[in-house]
Amino acid sequence: MNRLLILIGKIIVKILHLFKRNAGNLPGIILWHLTRGKCCKMFKVSCPIIAVTGTNGKTSVTNCIAQLFQQSGKKIIINKEGNNLDTGICSLLLRYCDSSGMVNADYLILETDESHVPVVYSQLKLETLVVLDFFRDQLDRNGEMETLIQKINNFCKTFEGNLILNGDDPNTARLGKANPGNKNVKYFHAEPYAFATKTAYEASEGHFCPFCGESLVYDYYQYSHIGKFHCPKCDFGKYEPYITASGIDLEKPVFTADGRTYSPKLNSIYNVYNMTAVAAAAKLYRIKPEITDKIISKYTVKNGRMENFMLGDRKTTLNLAKNPVGANMTLRVMNEMNGEKELLFVLNDNVADGLDVSWIWDINFSIFERVTRVVTSGTRAYDIAVRIKCSGYDPEKIAVKPDLDEAVAELASTPGRKFVIANYTAVQPTRSALKRYISKHGGKQNEND
Ligand SMILES: [Zn+2]
After folding, report:
1. What digits encode the pLDDT tens for the residues 374-386?
2. Which of 126, 322, 381, 427 could pair with 422 in a Cys bridge, judged by C-beta atoms 3.0 to 4.6 Å apart?
3. How many A from CA of 230 to the centre of ligand 1?
4. Within this chain, do residues 68 and 172 fall inside the same structural domain, yes or no?
5. Do the Cβ atoms of 411 and 436 come closer than 8 Å?
6. Exposed, middle or buried, 133 (CB in 10 Å: 0-12/13-18/19+)?
7. How far is the CA of 237 from the centre of ligand 1 (A)?
8. Which of 248, 270, 298 is the last residue of a domain?
9. How far apart are CA 377 and CA 430, in angstroms?
10. What is the extent of the structural domain holding 354?
11. Centre of ligand 1 from the C-alpha of residue 234, in Å
């Protein structure tokens, strides 16, 4: 039966390739139906599996961990295109398995959707799970965050492998305290950076101890609800970090972890957390320090994730923001930079974005500093303009341009530093509009520094 299913799957992949169609998800969906939801169970995986999950940062961390092994000369399989549901992972394994369903590699490194962790790894044996953070994201799909955390927690109850957790996120750190039976829990942690605060100033979750209900006390917040916390009543938040990022200086940018100093290319605290998770995996798997150094120092992102463009001589940073945390992060990077700057915010409400755009009310625009002008665009250009106006920003300085090319031209019409925030379905059209502007008026794309 297994062989027949594998054969069917491989034929579907072949047919899709013949028609030059992407076989990233469809073969898995068909096999999901044929196996009644157990589409990953057909495979025999001969090597350790490392999974990365969390709301933000999955793709970056998965790619970096994969590179750690690749550069160490290991054969790895990774779901690079981010097909991170059970059906996507099934489609990936179909491509690499033999006719008996055997998958041969040194390591499988899999970005895994939060809600699919229990689904996939009840079928495949997981060695290491990296959990980055939990934020409100696509609530219509994931349901309440608490439900999601409970799902993963239930999986952790029987999971005895390595659990690498963000110790500064109460939502992920609780998975460690809730499962004392697992002796392989490892926390990563970061010391405060220059813009850490004593109080939370972005809409954040995780105010209360999930074990005793007491209000959590924070020594400092790095961003959103990420920071050094503890419960004054029980021992939640007290742990010995496996790895700590210290000496964080985002001006340079530089940080130290486990006795080594890294100079990442991306200057956000959010990236420091991601790279500390990567360093934790490197430590666990005893990757040569010079390889870890190379990966962390060279890592940069394209595809609209802190991607830099030059509109003529005007430096422009584009960032994807699918949720308030992503948007707040870009605003933070903007604020922490000296000098005046302008922002273009592109907001769409297509199906893939979630039709509900109420999440923009959780973006903290009141922290704007030296933002001299805002341009808004996208199918909800007016909604985002109203949102920014309601934060107390001078409406005279807001230009609404639903047409993207007009919006980019408007942004580029003045000198100075520019930032662009675009949500999910807006990010690729925005990149295209920026490139069109550059091809007409000069400049440069993908100029990451
Ligand atoms: Zn407590």
Report:
1. 999 999 999 999 9
2. 427
3. 8
4. yes
5. no
6. buried
7. 9
8. 298
9. 10
10. 307-445
11. 4
